[in-house]
C-alpha cells in the first residue's frame, strides 16, 4: 500500500504575526529575519566558517570573556545545560544544584544521567538564595560542580551575588556553571571577572535571534579539567573538545562535527551585531527601565508582583500574581485572541499562580510595556465581568 502525500501540505504556508511577550522566544527584528533569507552555505565552506568566527567574537563580548572555548551548541537552551554538565561531570561527582525555580531541578535530572551524586540548596518559595545558605551548603556537601540559574524564567527570580559565588567556588575547588538563558542582556553578567567556569544563554531571548543555537563559553580552568578527564564525555554530540575544534577554538585544523544551520548562523550573527552596536550597558539599562515601568504599572492596576524583594526580580521575565478568582488561561486566551499578544502563565512551581511577562530584545520598549499593561488590565476586567454575569444567570 502506498502512502499518499498529505493534503495539508498542498495548502500555502501561513504564519500569523504575534507579539511575543512571554518568557521567550521574543520577536526577531526585520534585520534578523532578512538575514535568514540569504542562500544556504555548506557547513564547512570558508564563508560559513568566517561567519562562525564573527559569531564567536560577538559571544565573547556579550559574556564579557576572553575564553578560547567560546562557541555555539546547535540546539536550544537545554543543549547548553546538557553540554555544561556532560563535559564537567564524571561518575559519582557531587553536584550541588541551586534551586530558585524549575531549572535547577531540570539540571539535576540531567546530572543524574551522567552519574552525578546530586545535592540541593533550595530557596524558599518566591525568593533568591542567600550567600549564607550557599556557603552552608558548600561546607555540608563539598561539591565538585555548582549549578545556578542567574535568572529563573519559571519564577522571575534574579540570583544576585554571582561574583561572590564564583570566589566561593574557587575556594572549594568547585566548578561554577551559570545559566544565563533568560537573564543575559537584562542584567549585568561578567563571566571572567566573576570567575564563572561555564555560562550559556539562549539566542531567542534578549538577544532577539532565532532559537536553535546556544552560545556557550568554558573557562581555561574548566577546559583543563575536561582534557584531564578519566573518560570521555558520555555524549559525543556535546563533547566540547570536538565542537570547539569545529568552531576553531583551539588553534588546530577545523574538523567536521555536525552540520550547523547556516540560516540560524546568519540570524544570530545579525542579532549579535545589533546588540554590540547598541552596547552592552545600554541594552541592560533599557531592559531594566522597561521592567521598572512595568512593575509601577502593575502596582497602579492593583496587582502584585510575585517576587516580594525588589532586587531579586528578574527584569526580562516579570512574574505577576494572578488575582483571586481569575483564571489565568482565560486572560492569556483573551489577549491572544483579540490582540495576538502572548502573555504566559506560570511554569513548574508557579503554575496557576502567576502571569509571566517577558521584556526582551525588540519587545523591551516603553511602548510595548504600556501596551501589555493596557491589554492585561482589559483582559482581567473582561474575565471578571463574565464571571459576575455567569453568577447572576444562575440566580
Write the topology of this structure.
Layout: E1 19-20, H1 30-35, H2 46-63, E2 69-74, H3 77-88, E3 94-99, H4 102-113, E4 117-122, H5 131-141, E5 145-149, E6 151-152, E7 157-158, H6 162-171, E8 175-179, E9 198-200, E10 213-218, H7 220-227, H8 240-246, H9 262-278, H10 280-300, E11 317-321, H11 328-339, E12 341-342, E13 344-345, E14 354-358, H12 366-394
Parallel strand pairs: 1-12, 3-4, 3-5, 5-8, 8-9
Antiparallel strand pairs: 2-10, 6-7, 9-10, 11-14, 13-14
Describe this structure in words.
The protein has helices spanning 30-35, 46-63, 77-88, 102-113, 131-141, 162-171, 220-227, 240-246, 262-278, 280-300, 328-339, 366-394; strands at 19-20, 69-74, 94-99, 117-122, 145-149, 151-152, 157-158, 175-179, 198-200, 213-218, 317-321, 341-342, 344-345, 354-358. Helices cover 41% and strands 14% of the residues. The longest helix has 29 residues, at 366-394. The relative contact order is 0.17. It has 12 helices and 14 strands. It has a 7-stranded mixed beta sheet with strand order 2-10-9-8-5-3-4, with helices on both faces. Strands 11-14-13 form a 3-stranded antiparallel beta sheet, covered by helices on one side. The mean pLDDT is 96. β6 and β7 form a beta hairpin. It is α/β, with parallel strands linked by helices. The termini are far apart.
Amino acid at each position: 500500500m502506498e502512502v499518499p502525500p498529505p493534503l495539508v501540505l498542498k495548502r500555502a504556508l501561513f504564519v500569523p504575526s504575534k507579539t511575543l511577550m512571554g518568557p521567550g522566544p521574543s520577536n526577531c527584528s526585520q534585520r534578523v529575519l532578512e538575514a535568514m533569507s540569504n542562500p544556504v552555505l555548506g557547513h564547512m565552506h570558508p564563508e560559513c566558517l568566517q561567519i562562525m568566527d564573527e559569531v564567536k567574537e560577538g559571544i565573547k563580548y556579550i559574556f564579557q570573556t576572553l575564553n578560547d572555548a567560546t562557541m555555539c551548541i546547535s540546539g536550544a537552551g537545554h543543549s547548553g545545560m546538557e553540554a555544561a554538565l556532560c563535559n564537567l561531570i564524571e561518575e559519582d561527582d557531587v553536584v550541588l544544584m541551586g534551586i530558585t525555580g524549575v531549572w535547577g531541578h531540570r539540571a539535576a535530572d540531567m546530572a543524574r544521567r551522567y552519574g552525578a551524586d546530586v545535592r540541593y540548596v533550595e530557596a524558599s518559595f518566591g525568593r533568591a538564595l542567600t550567600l549564607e545558605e550557599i556557603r552552608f551548603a558548600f561546607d555540608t556537601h563539598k561539591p565538585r560542580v555548582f549549578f545556578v540559574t542567574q535568572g529563573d524564567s519559571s519564577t522571575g527570580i534574579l540570583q544576585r551575588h554571582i561574583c561572590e559565588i564564583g570566589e566561593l567556588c574557587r575556594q572549594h575547588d568547585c566548578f561554577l556553571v551559570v545559566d544565563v538563558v533568560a537573564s543575559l542582556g537584562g542584567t549585568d553578567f561578567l563571566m571572567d571577572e566573576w570567575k564563572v567556569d561555564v555560562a550559556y544563554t539562549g539566542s531567542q531571548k534578549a538577544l532577539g535571534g532565532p532559537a536553535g543555537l546556544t552560545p556557550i563559553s568554558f573557562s581555561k580552568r574548566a577546559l583543563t579539567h575536561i582534557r584531564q578527564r578519566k573518560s570521555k564525555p558520555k555524549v559525543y554530540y556535546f563533547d566540547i573538545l570536538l565542537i570547539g575544534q569545529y568552531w576553531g577554538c583551539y588553534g588546530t585544523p577545523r574538523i567536521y562535527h555536525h552540520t550547523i544551520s547556516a540560516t540560524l548562523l546568519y540570524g544570530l550573527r545579525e542579532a549579535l551585531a545589533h546588540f554590540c552596536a547598541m552596547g552592552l550597558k545600554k541594552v541592560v539599562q533599557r531592559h531594566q527601565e522597561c521592567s521598572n515601568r512595568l512593575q509601577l504599572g502593575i502596582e497602579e492596576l492593583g496587582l502584585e508582583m510575585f517576587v516580594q524583594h525588589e532586587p531579586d526580580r528578574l527584569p526580562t521575565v516579570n512574574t505577576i500574581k494572578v488575582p483571586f478568582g481569575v483564571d489565568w488561561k482565560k486572560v492569556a486566551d483573551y489577549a491572544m485572541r483579540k490582540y495576538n499578544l502572548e502573555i504566559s502563565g506560570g511554569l513548574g512551581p508557579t503554575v496557576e499562580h502567576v502571569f509571566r511577562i517577558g521584556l526582551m530584545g525588540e519587545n523591551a520598549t516603553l511602548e510595548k510595556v504600556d501596551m501589555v499593561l493596557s491589554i492585561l488590565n482589559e483582559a482581567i476586567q473582561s474575565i471578571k465581568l463574565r464571571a459576575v454575569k455567569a453568577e447572576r444567570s444562575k440566580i
